[in-house]
Design goal:
single chain; alpha+beta; 68% helix
């Protein structure tokens, strides 16, 4: 019979030793920076890494039953693109951009009437008279809507009251309309703060001031566009007489390029100035270009659908209102998604 040997720890024949693997190892600052972040449990194909201020999804590859993370310098363009798409998808859900798009679209819809009043009040200070403004409104509105006699009388009465009102009444109406229409800009600013993960440090009065300023700049831009619309026919005649080739380019491809450039610049300025953080202009260009292209492509597709679909003439203005609300929501969603693209491309959340 074989007797069991007593344990050295019980007999005291051998000194008690502690494995060096159990000791807490002291790390130099350089080594501590290179330490890999801790891993979270996730799907077998994707590994979620927890990094201070940032979550990255990296693809996994299997090798003899073990999971191995691909280093960043060994990832291909396809891997980096897939990582970007997954991060954009997760971050968009986390930031609830659909809710902010709906909120911005709702406040913009509520701001339509005061903003139109604001534009009409500002048109008094332009060199155009009441008849010029009436002709411009008739050109912009749908033909079936303009041909109605009550609509023509209503527009004529509104313009007559605007041009015959006193300066003090016009000033009060202008301030009230500017205050009401700035709520849409305020909602956009709050949505961008959430997307870029920055706390709102500005007080309510500062936020309202910037919203009113942005609304004023937007109104002035629309006035400039309306003035260009009124002067476009004489400009076309002059260009066609002296530079017919330039007129052909302006009438075909160049106008879309000009519109794309203007929208990209406007969206870049919005992404830079709306959040409560100092951002540079150049990193905002990718998301602004995406938003500008998205607006133009979606508006073009929706215009084709509205032209070919016979339901618009069947249901009348109700369908037009519904499609207008849908267009506004999708445009706001594209604008929020462009800001989300810039937030992902920055590489880390701004704290």
């Amino acid at each position: 019979m074989v007797l069991a040997q007593p344990s050295p720890r019980l007999t005291g024949s051998a000194p008690l030793t502690v494995s060096t693997a159990c000791r807490p190892q002291t790390m130099l600052p350089q080594q501590r920076k290179r330490r890999m972040p801790q891993l979270q449990k996730n799907s077998p194909r994707i590994l979620r890494l927890r990094i201070p201020g940032l979550q990255i999804l990296r693809p996994m590859q299997r090798k003899k039953g073990r999971r191995k993370t691909l280093p960043m310098n060994k990832q291909t363009k396809r891997d980096r693109f897939l990582i970007f798409i997954v991060r954009l998808f997760n971050q968009s859900i986390e930031d609830r951009i659909s809710a902010f798009a709906a909120q911005s679209a709702f406040f913009m819809l509520l701001s339509v009437v005061p903003f139109v009043i604001l534009l009409l009040q500002l048109m008094r200070f332009t060199p155009y008279n009441q008849q010029d403004l009436m002709d411009l409104i008739m050109e912009l509105l749908p033909e079936d809507f303009v041909l109605l006699e009550p609509i023509q009388n209503l527009i004529s009465n509104i313009l007559a009251e605007l041009y015959s009102g006193s300066v003090s009444l016009v000033s009060i109406t202008l301030i009230a309309a500017l205050w009401a229409s700035s709520k849409a800009m305020h909602s956009l600013s709050y949505g961008f703060d959430v997307i870029f993960a920055v706390p709102e440090s500005r007080n309510w009065f500062v936020l309202r001031f910037w919203a009113i300023l942005y609304t004023s700049v937007f109104a002035i831009g629309i006035l400039a566009f309306l003035a260009l619309t009124l002067l476009w026919k004489p400009i076309q005649i002059w260009i066609d007489g002296y530079l017919p080739q330039l007129f052909f380019l302006l009438d075909t491809e160049i106008k879309w390029l000009i519109l794309l450039t203007l929208l990209t610049l406007v969206f870049s300025l919005m992404y830079q100035t709306f959040p409560a953080v100092n951002l540079h202009f150049r990193p905002m260009l990718p998301g602004a270009l995406f938003s500008a292209l998205g607006w133009m492509v979606f508006s073009y597709i929706l215009g084709i659908y509205a032209t070919d679909y016979n339901g618009f003439s069947m249901y009348g203005s109700l369908t037009t209102l519904a499609m207008g609300m849908f267009w506004l929501y999708i445009c706001m969603y594209i604008l929020m998604l462009g800001a989300e693209i810039n937030s992902v491309l920055l590489g880390s959340r701004i704290r």
